[in-house]
Design brief:
Strand order of the largest sheet: 1-2-3-4-5-7-10-11
Shape: globular
Oligomer: single chain
CATH topology: TIM Barrel
Bound molecules: beta-D-fucopyranose
Number of helices: 14
Structural class: alpha/beta
Largest sheet: 8 strands, parallel, barrel
Length: 443
């Protein structure tokens, strides 16, 4: 086994996707409340109002984590639950909830890892421009200060922002996520502020948390050209710049990639790109969320990157239409190690959606999901053998949950949730993961 002794095995969730209780105990509105209540934005008109009701059922959920033998649990804090207006007065009931959750985890012997921003921006801040307002760097630092002071004695592992690519580009350029803008310039500006906010928050975490372990989580893809033609190779390089390097380079090198600066050109006019050096604060790990690879073709009629993605025939796909590509995960982990030399890599999310059958006799049969985990964990092991410093792996997700624009239509959990009764039922993949963790950590 290539996994080092102190390797962490866990599962991940995010506040808006599981908590529910969206109008209770003083929680403020968030951009996803607003977005999901706007007709036509989320499949079947689903919202996160109730979600899995984890806010009320966290004790049961932690007991399930313990049953699974999880060593670590990655959750996110709902900013509007703890600071309803985004800035200023804190909400005692919200802060208490995270206190109780953390204490419950610790008494179950599970290490907490907290993400500060997993997309549920307070609507009150959106009303002031949200991620397009430069002041958000300060707002986010203040919020980080509150949370790290409150939990930092018990929570050592911190993730600043989850997937700035998705939060900025899917939310501001492609309109598929909250707040639903379709303006490439806005996407770039939001991303810029997220990266600056990450850098600022890292400093706050360092000040407030003794022995902190901190980093950012990026969604990274392995990118292959559709053919070996020079045009497709260049197209793949642009796509890599768009998804990967635009975020990894700032965090490690304090600069945006030169080829992409040139490509975006005047779309960056509102941004002082030299400020990006503030994003390069030494991290203890780079968090990566991995689901699939991208196969890219040159396309003169494509959107502003002049590319389009193709879906190779004969490959396997999950319900999201994401190609099964575990080998690309190995390649990606080795590449990150070789090009950026992170101190450590954490896989903060990895998993698959499938249309699971209903529970039968207290069990859900989901062989494809188990297979996904087996092949991807094996791919991580190969990367470690090739020198990549991977030290943690979190499955996405602990529970079936509100899958953003897909609502409750896509299930990623290793635990099934009946969205009518909110009853939890173990899936076979959860049992497989439990047995795997037990085996790999034995002796
Ligand atoms: C990632 C998100 C996570 C979940 C998975 C499927 O992009 O971080 O919340 O929706 O995708």
């Amino acid at each position: 086994m290539a996994f080092p002794k102190n390797f962490l095995w866990g599962a991940a969730t995010a506040s808006y996707q599981i908590e529910g209780a969206s109008r209770q105990d003083g929680r403020g509105e968030c951009i996803w409340t607003r977005f999901s209540h706007t007709p036509g934005k989320v499949m079947n008109g689903d919202t996160g109002d109730v979600a899995t009701d984890h806010y009320h059922r966290y004790v049961e959920d932690v007991a399930l984590m313990k049953e699974l033998g999880l060593q670590a649990y990655r959750f996110s804090v709902s900013w509007p639950r703890v600071i309803p207006n985004g800035t200023g007065t804190t909400n005692p009931a919200g802060l208490d909830f995270y206190d109780r959750l953390v204490d419950e985890l610790l008494s179950a012997g599970i290490i907490p890892a907290a993400t500060l921003y997993h997309w549920d921006l307070p609507q009150a801040l959106q009303n002031r421009g949200g991620w397009l307002n430069r002041e958000i760097v300060g707002w986010f630092s203040d919020y980080t200060d509150q949370m790290t002071r409150r939990l930092g004695d018990r929570v050592k592992n911190w993730i600043t922002i989850n997937e700035p690519f998705v939060a900025a580009f899917v939310g501001y350029t492609f309109a598929a996520h909250a707040p639903g803008y379709s303006d490439p310039r806005a996407g770039l500006l939001a991303a810029h502020h997220m990266l600056l906010a990450h850098g600022a928050a890292m400093q706050v975490i360092r000040q407030n948390v003794a022995n902190s372990v901190a980093g950012i989580t990026l969604n990274v893809s392995w990118v292959d050209p559709a053919t070996s033609s020079e045009a497709d190779v260049q197209a793949a390089r642009r796509h890599d710049g768009f998804v990967n390097r635009w975020f990894i380079d700032p965090v490690f090198k304090g600069e945006y990639p030169a080829d992409m600066l040139q490509l975006y050109g005047s779309a960056l006019d509102d941004i002082d790109v030299t400020e990006i050096k503030q994003a390069a604060v030494p991290q203890d790990f780079l968090g990566i969320n991995y689901y699939t690879r991208n196969v890219i073709k040159d396309d003169p009629n494509g959107h502003y990157l002049k590319t389009h993605e193709i879906k190779p025939e004969g490959a396997g796909y999950t319900q999201m239409g994401w190609e099964l590509a575990p080998g690309s995960l190995t390649q990606l982990l080795v590449r990150l190690h070789q090009e950026y030399a992170p101190k450590a890599l954490w896989i903060t999310e990895n998993g698959a959606a499938y249309p699971d059958p209903d529970p039968v006799n207290g069990m859900v049969a989901d062989p494809e999901r188990t297979d996904y985990f087996k092949t991807h964990i094996a791919a991580v092991e190969v990367a470690i053998q090739q020198g990549s410093p991977v030290t943690a792996y979190f499955v996405w997700s602990l529970l079936d949950n509100f899958e953003w624009a897909y609502g409750y239509d896509r299930r990623f959990g290793i635990i099934h949730v009946d969205f009518k009764t909110l009853k939890r039922t173990m899936k076979r993949s959860g049992l497989w993961y439990r047995d795997y963790i037990a085996k790999v950590t034995a002796g």
